[in-house]
Amino acid sequence: MVSTELHAEKQIQSAGTRNYSPSQNKSSKDDSSTETAGITETTGHYASFSMSSSENETTPVPSKWGRMTLPVPQFSRNDFSVWSILKQCIGKELSKITMPVVFNEPLSFLQRLCENVEYSYLLEKANMSDNPVERMEYVASFTAACISSNWERLGKPFNPLLGETYELISKEGEGFRMMTEQVSHHPPVTAFYADSPHFTFTGAVHPKLKLWARSVEIKPEGTAIIKLLRHNETYTWSGVTTCVHNIIVGKLWMEQCGIMEIKCHTNGLVAEMNFKPAGWYSKDLHCVEGFIFDKQKTKVSFLYGKWTSFMRKLDCEHYDEYLRLKELNPQQNSSDSRTSQQKDNSSLLNKFQRKKSVPTTLENGDKSDNYQCLEDLPTTLLWEVEPRPDWASEYYNFTQYAMALNELQEGMKETLPCTDSRFRPDIRKLEEGDIDGAAFEKNRLEEKQREVRKIRKRDKTTWVPLWFESKPHPYAKEEFWSFKNSYWDRNFSNCPDIF
């Protein structure tokens, strides 16, 4: 595996990475009249900067999450062929394949998992609601919001090392805290736990990756469990499949596909959410729709939207009207008309993602032909995505939330365990634009992990996670990892040296 990666890195170097300049991808909007301040090695650009132009002096609103950008823009991947690396892996389990660092984004999978709680306010709303159907609507919307940051994020997060951890504490709203740990390496298993005054959110992810002729599929196996504390209600679901297309030729793009079943084990409500494949002419690209059923299997609410942008609900007494309007506006059979509509939808989606102040009437234009008449019905907006910054394309298409995940703020070194992902040198070097340094550190860490595994095998010892323990759970079919809570005592004296 090491020789495969080193060969790939040589290919990458010959493609021109040694001539990489951190400024090569900067937007043409940048000019010499812009002065920035507050730039450090690990924290990038902050919001405290001003325009020197006397005509228009503005101060951007600081991000509520942290830094505004990464230290340097992303390098260009245009000269790199994913297929040249992956063609030898067809039919294999990709989690066991060592991939070149050029295909990574500067985040660990542990950090990427914490993006699931960006819209935790939906769980707060669910917990405060006295209507059980409304609670399920918010929880179902949260499951779509969990994966919204995947849109156009085609870089691979770094595989966590065994024993690696990551913590995230937010004071937004009533606040939440989240902790993740890599509890197993073969097979790879990441356990997570988040809590707030309103909810607990826990589970373990067993990612399964499969390579096909022209695509890669990622199935996040494992059960996610939410408990709403005010109502003592437990909800469970499993993730849907992510499919990345055009790995041989063409522009890479992804979709989320499959049926997600969300169960409330306390009141018997079930939400069945259909994450639709794009289909012919991409008419259903990113679309999600489904129903909430009561104990008698009666439909009590209809949910629809796009996992990239919004979720809305429609009362079932209006659903017949929805079907009638749908029949009155059949889709045109002409492929030219479909192609034109697809381009219009793509344009509107980009406009929606970038402008927070888009009127609500425009968001319906973001839908496929199926949804052209829903604005005439009494729908209710449940969730809408936070627009990405204008410069997101220069920084791995990160959301503003993701920009701050690897930020090493003042005082963190004294409070975090040495196993925290923020201290990984390969991720830090990639974030700073040092491709060769990141590749070297990635290989070094993987070799170190292999040597430690050999020592354990020789001594016949077994790895025991520090912060999670394997326990059966009444609502989880597979092995479940329970959080010990001792992490927050901050006694990190037993943490292993993995970096």
What would the keywords be for this entry?
single chain; 499 residues; alpha+beta; six-stranded antiparallel β-barrel; two-stranded antiparallel sheet; Oxysterol-bd; lipid-binding; lipid transport; sterol binding; OSBP_sf
Q: What strand line-up does the widest sheet have?
A: 8-9-12-13-11-10
How many strands, which pairing sense, and closed or not: the largest β-sheet? Answer: 6 strands, antiparallel, barrel
Outline: globular
The whole-number mean of residue pLDDT values reads 79
- What are the segments in which pLDDT stays under 50 over at least 5 consecutive residues? 1-60, 332-372
Helix content class: 10-25%
Number of helices: 12
Strand content range = 15-25%
Cα(first) to Cα(last) distance is 20 Å
Q: Structural class of the helix and strand makeup?
A: alpha+beta
Tally the beta strands.
20
Radius of gyration: 23 Å
Can you offer a commentary on this structure?
This protein has 12 helices and 20 strands. By secondary structure, the protein is α+β, with helices and mostly antiparallel strands. The strands form 4 sheets. It has a 6-stranded antiparallel barrel.
Q: Quick recap of the structure?
A:
The protein is of the alpha+beta class. Helices cover 24% and strands 24% of the residues.
How do the helices and strands line up, and which of them pair or pack?
Blueprint (H helix, E strand, L loop, with lengths): L1 H13 L19 E2 L14 E2 L30 H5 L17 E5 H5 L7 H8 L3 H15 L9 E3 L6 E6 L5 E9 L4 E7 L3 E13 L3 E7 L2 E5 L4 E5 L3 E5 L7 E12 L5 E6 L11 E7 L5 E8 L3 E6 L3 H10 L6 H20 L5 H4 L16 E5 L15 H4 L8 H4 L9 H7 L3 H25 L8 E3 L10 E3 L16
Parallel strand pairs: 3-4
Antiparallel strand pairs: 1-2, 5-6, 6-7, 7-8, 8-9, 8-10, 9-12, 10-11, 11-13, 12-13, 13-14, 14-15, 15-16, 16-17, 17-18, 19-20
